[in-house]
Amino acid sequence: MIDSKVVVACDFAKLSDLNNFVDQVSPDLCKLKIGKEMFTHFGPQAVKPLVDKGFDVFLDLKFHDIPNTVAKACVAAADLGVWMVNVHASGGAKMMSQAMQALESNGAKRPKLIAVTVLTSMDETQLHAITPNVSVLDQVQKLALLTQQSGLDGVVCSAQEAKLLRSVCADDFLLVTPGIRPEGSAVGDQIRIMTPPQAMQAGVSYMVIGRPITQAKDPLVALQDINASI
Ligand SMILES: O=C(O)c1cc(=O)[nH]c(=O)n1[C@@H]1O[C@H](COP(=O)(O)O)[C@@H](O)[C@H]1O
Q1: Which sign does the torsion angle of CA 33, 6, 104, 169 carry?
Q2: What confidence score (pLDDT) does residue 107 get?
Q3: Which is the catalytic residue, given 17, 48, 53, 65?
Q4: Is the pLDDT assigned to residue 1 strictly greater than 80?
Q5: DSSP string covering 67-123, please?
Q6: Which residues bind substrate (predicted)?
Q7: d(Cα 99, Cα 68) in Å, to the nearest integer?
Q8: Whose Cα sits closest to atom 20 in ligand 1?
Q9: Alpha helix (H) ranges present in 169-218?
Q10: Is 218 considered catalytic here?
Q11: Measured distance CA(122)–CA(225) in Å, rounded
């Protein structure tokens, strides 16, 4: 199977909208991400059919809690058969390493575990309201190195930080980047953005793209155009 670089963020309010989209695409064209909106509405019902159809599914619930709770939540996600799960790096090294240990001893095929650094909807001003005197780049780098030291597979960051992280992290460390906007598409609430070709050139491993595909007049064509551009 082709290791498609595009992970489509399936942020729908209805299962029928998810099914309509999924019926148009295949695992060779894209991976799929189920996040907080669909999972809160529908739980495993939104995930399992996609896994059964052979899609690599990124279950994006961004766990951030005490180590024991996060480790058990990651195992519950793994038991759904997903390809990737995530936590917030700001939960700390102990939270991250305990989650990885729990996944490794769970037996079933281990999903990739990655950690969110600084959300792509944040700029320096927003970051400073939480962590004063640190640039976005420094904060992303600090959290990425902490994630790597904690034994995880990679991070969620923006493509704007990919070049820096490629120079300080291991070659196989995954850089998964939302905030991807093809030329001319609506930016919405994303701030640290790049186009698909720019992101791939910066060294990202996978691009998470939602509305530019799912809200397009023809989602399949939008996805095919992106695939052709990278
Ligand atoms: O972890 C994520 O996937 C994530 C992290 C982040 O920093 N920024 C971010 O946008 N996301 C997710 O990526 C998707 C982006 O969707 P669009 O903005 O519609 O392309 C959404 O489902 C977000 O929840």
Answers
A1: negative
A2: 81
A3: 65
A4: no
A5: HHHHHHHHHHHHTTT-SEEEEEGGG-HHHHHHHHHHHHTT-SPPPEEEEE-S-TT--
A6: 11, 33, 60-69, 120, 181, 190, 210-211
A7: 8
A8: 210
A9: 196-202, 211-214
A10: no
A11: 28
Quick: pLDDT tens for 15-60: 999 999 999 999 999 999 999 999 999 999 999 999 999 999 999 9
Cα–Cα distance measured from residue 119 to residue 139, given in angstroms and rounded to the nearest whole number: 11
* Residue 160 labeled ligand binder: no
Reading the block at residue 217, the tokens are 């007049």
Helices (H), the chain: 15-24, 36-42, 48-52, 67-78, 93-104, 124-130, 136-149, 162-168, 196-202, 211-214, 219-229
Please give the model's pTM, rounded to 2 decimal places: 0.98
- What domains does the chain contain, in order, with CATH numbers? 6-223 (3.20.20.70)
Nearest to 16 by CA among 36, 45, 55: 45
Contact (CB, 8 A) for 179 and 120: yes
pLDDT score at 165 = 98
Nearest to 43 by CA among 83, 6, 87, 73: 73
Ligand 1 mean position, distance from CA 140 (Å): 16
- 62 classed as catalytic: yes
C-alpha–C-alpha distance, residues 134 and 154, integer Å: 22
At residue 174 the predicted structure's pLDDT band, cuts being 50, 70 and 90, is very high
Burial of 52 (0-12, 13-18, 19+ CB in 10 A): exposed
